[in-house]
Amino acid sequence: MNGFRLLGSAFVFTCLLLAQVSPASAFRLVPIEMEFAPSGRGATQIFRLENDTAEPVAIEVSLMTRRMTEQGEDQLEPAGENFAIFPEQIVLQGNQSQSVRVQWMGNANPSQELAFRLVAEQLPVDLGKAPLPGGQVRLLVRYVASVYVTPQGAKPDPVVTSVAPQGKALAVTVTNRGTSRQILRDATLTVTGGGKTVTLRGEQLTGLLGENVLAGATRRFSIPLPAGLPQGPLSATLAAAPR
Hints:
Elements (H helix, E strand, L loop, with lengths): L11 E2 L6 E3 L5 E3 L2 E4 L7 E7 L6 E12 L5 E5 L4 E4 L2 E4 L4 E8 L9 E9 L13 E3 L3 E8 L8 E9 L2 E8 L5 E2 L4 E6 L2 E6 L10 E2 L4 E7 L10 E5 L4
Parallel strand pairs: 2-12, 4-13
Antiparallel strand pairs: 1-13, 3-5, 5-10, 6-7, 6-9, 6-11, 8-10, 11-13, 14-15, 15-20, 16-19, 17-18, 17-21
């Protein structure tokens, strides 16, 4: 599972192997993002699985630790005993919903926010149905949701550590030196050099706007090269709306 790009809070993945496809029983995971406290009542949260079809579906739920590369790709590994999940495997009957209780069992006093992915995936199990005809496969549904364990008082601190023209783009490196994630929405980038300042926002920040920088992570972005960019060495500051 390591190394694939995750571009949002939740995702549905499908597997297509042959030309003829039989649709699988579908389900939904709610919510697609959840924040846990490291201790106390907030260390336990409830997800919900919903089957809106008439067919039963088998589902497995797991937690993965999440680290972020400079390109924004997730690197995932099993979370081990940091979480307790009940139930982990479910047969969801047609038009039925099921609550899934998830409890943080790890460090009760982390120094910064910890990021995880909750994965709910359909299992390739035929629940009392005849096997699919030859040449057909089933599309299996897989949701990936965002989970954060956030200590009290955690705050982001995104800092631009480098900025420089790169061909027809402006390369911007951002390190989150804070203790919680920063979503770069409503962001403003102020670039200074040679006694001149240019302020960029909105579409000028395409490629950066709306991206997530986890606590302690470094991200590299490429945005359109702005007109009137100062010559010579550049520095920049970044401001973004609080989450």
